[in-house]
Automatic annotation (TrEMBL), chain A:
Family: Belongs to the CbiM family.
Organism domain of life: Bacteria
Name of the molecule in the record: Cobalt transport protein CbiM
UniProt xrefs under InterPro entries: CbiM, CbiM/NikMN
Transmembrane segments: 13-31, 43-60, 80-101, 108-127, 133-155, 187-205
NCBIfam families: cbiM, PRK08319.1
Membrane topology, as annotated: Multi-pass membrane protein
Assembly and interaction partners: Forms an energy-coupling factor (ECF) transporter complex composed of an ATP-binding protein (A component, CbiO), a transmembrane protein (T component, CbiQ) and 2 possible substrate-capture proteins (S components, CbiM and CbiN) of unknown stoichimetry.
A Pfam entry, by short name: CbiM
Function per UniProt: Part of the energy-coupling factor (ECF) transporter complex CbiMNOQ involved in cobalt import.
Automatic annotation (TrEMBL), chain B:
Residue stretches in coiled coil: none
Keyword Mitochondrion: no
Membrane-topology annotation of the record: Multi-pass membrane protein
Cleaved signal peptide residues: none
Transmembrane segments annotated in the record for this chain: 16-35, 41-59, 66-86, 106-126, 221-240
Family, similarity comment: Belongs to the CbiQ family.
Protein keywords: Cell membrane, Membrane, Transmembrane, Transmembrane helix
Annotated organism of origin: Magnetospirillum sulfuroxidans
Name of this protein: Cobalt ECF transporter T component CbiQ
Lineage, uppermost ranks: Bacteria, Pseudomonadati, Pseudomonadota, Alphaproteobacteria, Rhodospirillales
Pfam family name, one: CbiQ
Classification via CDD domains: EcfT (cd16914)
Length: 215, 241
């Protein structure tokens, strides 16, 4: 869920940017090292970024009747690793803000944190953990992508609740409000994204495509 | 085809220096964030809309661009209308005012940013970021990503059209499957495309940078001064009212 331009108060917007910036810079430094060793990797990375952008424009059927789109963070984290995903995700979020007016510059930091940092790391962690616990590949991918997707919404609810605490019940009430609204629309969507990611990963395994950039 | 991008290339302000447009639009964005929503945000919204019309957009086009973000902001702002307490859920006392203020601030900010994107092509924006200190490698990845977007979008929409023509959108299960197959078919294509481009570039002595020419534009200090003055006037006016 993108937080729209101007939605967060200035202080919150700055604070989330300050939280996200170092993490993206660390990812960027790692990326620069990869690019210096292999200049041609930038084309693969760019293709992956453009893929994520186009994928986010893909309409997924959602049970509530509205259509929404996958975040692609789980797929990204499993395919190229969470550190590289944070940088590519930032680029994609910037394009979404500029070209589609979806998200924004002032809320870029908050959006980067929920969708390019928290989501990928949760997806990656769950996917690895489920694999270690002996879950079959399909189930591990499904859990990773679904929980990664849900994780981004929980983080977004948290960010919104911090910015707009409820007049009576404060942060807790606001978090419940935002999370409930998201739960109605996003739980089916997260499950859809999980299934989608399994279909993609299966098809990719069938083609024996190896992604080159592992973090 | 992305509408904001098409409009940027056809804009009357296309040839104006980036510094002037950036000062105006980012200045408006900062005003939208910093000033009290009434009347600051309303002023910003009006000025940004006027700018869009002067730069060559028709009013319906501008409103059509603003509509989807407006819808998202509305759904978010709606949560401020209700409050949760020990007794249950009720309408918040001043929720309507809060939501209205939030809506106007966010809408003004969106309009300010949108004015920048419908007047300035992406290549220029990335060069601006480059001048502000974005490392060259990241600028290149960003621009290459931008170029790939259009190629992949064409491919994806062709795939989508042929899936729909084969009843791929019939029912929820099949739509998930179609979307998954589309994504799965698109990713290898994107990577293949990247590989072919890379081989073609290597054969031409690719060292990692893709330089492009930009039309030279001279920044005129008096125009910057006028824009800054106008922004200051807006700030003064809305603080005074």
């Amino acid at each position: 869920m993108h937080i729209m331009e101007g939605f967060l108060p200035a202080g919150h917007a700055l604070a989330w940017s300050a939280v996200s910036a170092p993490l993206v810079v660390v990812g960027a430094m790692r990326l620069r090292k990869i690019l210096r060793d292999r200049p041609e990797a930038r084309l693969t990375l760019a293709a992956a970024g453009a893929f994520a952008f186009v994928l986010s424009a893909l309409k997924l059927p959602s049970v509530t009747g509205s259509c929404s789109h996958p975040t692609g963070t789980g797929l990204g984290a499993m395919a190229v690793g969470p550190a590289a995903t944070s940088v590519i995700g930032t680029i994609v979020l910037l394009f979404q803000a500029l070209l589609l007016a979806h998200g924004g510059l002032t809320t870029l930091g908050a959006n980067v944190f929920s969708m390019a940092i928290a989501g990928p790391w949760i997806a990656f962690g769950v996917w690895k953990l489920a694999g270690k616990l002996g879950a079959p590949m399909g189930l591990a991918i499904f859990l990773g992508a679904t929980l990664g997707d849900l994780g981004t919404y929980v983080v977004t609810s948290f960010q919104l609740a911090l910015a707009f605490p409820d007049a009576v019940s404060g942060f807790g009430g606001a978090f419940a409000k935002f999370a409930t609204i998201f739960a109605i629309t996003q739980i089916p969507l997260a499950i859809a994204e999980g299934l989608l990611t399994v279909v993609v990963m299966n098809a990719l395994a069938g083609r024996q495509i190896k992604t080159e950039i592992r973090a | 085809m992305i509408e904001a991008d098409r409009l940027a290339h056809a804009s009357r302000w296309r040839r104006l220096p980036l510094a002037e447009k950036a000062l105006l639009c980012l200045g408006l964005l900062i005003l939208a964030m910093a000033l009290p929503p009434w009347p600051g945000a309303v002023l910003v919204l009006l000025v940004a809309s006027a700018g869009a019309v002067i730069s060559g957009l028709t009013l319906p086009t501008w409103l059509r661009l603003l509509a989807p973000p407006c819808f998202f902001i509305l759904t978010g702002a709606a949560t401020l209308l209700v409050q949760v307490s020990a007794d249950g859920i009720g309408l918040a006392a001043d929720g309507g005012i809060q939501a209205g203020l939030l809506l106007s601030r966010a809408l003004a900010a969106v309009a300010a940013l949108l004015l920048l994107t419908v007047t300035t092509p992406m290549a220029e924006l990335v060069q601006g970021l480059r001048r502000l200190g974005l490392p060259v490698e990241l600028a290149e990845v960003t621009m290459t990503t931008y170029r790939f977007i259009f190629i992949l979008q064409d491919t994806a929409s062709a795939m989508h059209a042929s899936q729909m023509a084969r009843l791929g959108g019939d029912g929820w299960r099949r739509r998930i499957r179609s979307a998954g197959l589309l994504a799965a078919a698109l990713l290898p294509r994107a990577l293949d495309q990247a590989r072919r481009l890379e081989m073609g570039l290597l054969a031409r002595g690719f060292d990692g940078s893709l330089r492009t020419l930009m039309p030279a534009q001279r920044v005129r200090p008096w125009r910057l001064a006028v824009i800054a003055g106008g922004l200051a006037l807006m700030a003064g006016l809305s603080l005074w009212i």
